[in-house]
């Protein structure tokens, strides 16, 4: 605990402006390392400037943290795991950094400036480095998911160490401006820190990510970090530094700002090159919607069209029709199909397959991303692949979160009767954002919109390579009160499907003439509990 200042004895020289003394002779003398500080402004103003610096540095630190979580979730998947890794490693590293920074307290101003310069460079370049490793080394240098997490841990550790080292140095600087009770000083410091974290946490999703993107957003954050750290020390604590230290610090900060500015100028070229490395040279459309990154490759000059959502292949002209025929055809051929609901499927291919069947009177498509629907309507290659399904008067599109739409669905809300067929054309359940769309609660909602003799068809992932996930989906659908028939189709190898019907109805049997093969008890993984909203069970 820092001892409070004792009154100066009679006849003692007055303390330097902005410093009430340390209760004894300061180490290094006035203005020297560890001693009282001479300020170019009044102590109250100086203290306010330091707390403002704490605010900005805390905002920058949280942006780095959120950027690591977001980029790792996008590149690796399973956002819960990535967030847990980043947060736990970073908090641990902050504690280590705080302990290590105690050695820098005698030269707190210089140490703080050096740490901010390093943090600006490491944090600002973290997104570029991670994306470059992913793009040019075949998925993190061929190291697989484990190797990608090693790189994530390395950045989390480095950034956490630097952020943790800020706190004791800032505390030292505040106390040297105006000595106060340790509890009050800690309260002021952490109040500024936490409010800054709030600002950074809100700025990342609402300003930086939608307006600048991850790469430019982190580079700008690093620039702000370097400017604040350098300006605070060179402007407020310059008397603590020797002429050589001031010159070295200025050169270092200018070099950091130059590196960040150079990267910002070339970030678009970098992103295009990285995108070509990931998706190939046929990238034709690349856009960031409010929900995800959408990339179209090929579709011209005889090159096959592919649609990627957040880096994952969703549609391929090579075999997309086989997948959608397997998904849609079995349920459509098993009974009445006048009214059909497609959950997901904004690319329009599932709707196109539905429209190939006679007797269809209405197709409702619920897609959360309007950007995908616009692309499916307007892009010549994609709209040709989906047979211009959205131009058909029988097709209605609802842009909404699928779970929310089902929860709010009623005949009066969306002008529908119960559906003969519900088609779940959604991302794989292993992706954390989709887990709720494979939950027991979700299938209960889907059952509510089914007709008494209706059918629900679900793509449940690969049967052989991810049997645990596939049969967990089956257990979850059954827990929702539906009867299931599991099958796979030779025309869509690697994909497994579930055909579900309400209780009391006659379970349909997939038509073997369509290439469907029933999966029996010998294939089943037994004893799997259902997945629920509060207990998801699809993590790899």
UniProtKB/TrEMBL annotation:
The chain crosses the membrane at residues 48-76, 82-101, 113-138, 150-174, 186-209, 215-236, 248-267. The active site is at 425 (proton acceptor). GO terms for biological process: spermidine biosynthetic process. It is an enzyme of class 2 (transferase). Its main location: membrane. Spermidine binds at residues 324, 347. Keywords: Cell membrane, Membrane, Polyamine biosynthesis, Spermidine biosynthesis, Transferase, Transmembrane, Transmembrane helix. Residues 20-35 have a biased composition (Gly residues). Residues 1-16 have a biased composition (Pro residues). It catalyses: S-adenosyl 3-(methylsulfanyl)propylamine + putrescine = S-methyl-5'-thioadenosine + spermidine + H(+). Residues 266-510 form the PABS domain. Homodimer or homotetramer. Catalyzes the irreversible transfer of a propylamine group from the amino donor S-adenosylmethioninamine (decarboxy-AdoMet) to putrescine (1,4-diaminobutane) to yield spermidine. This is Polyamine aminopropyltransferase. It comes from Streptomyces capitiformicae.
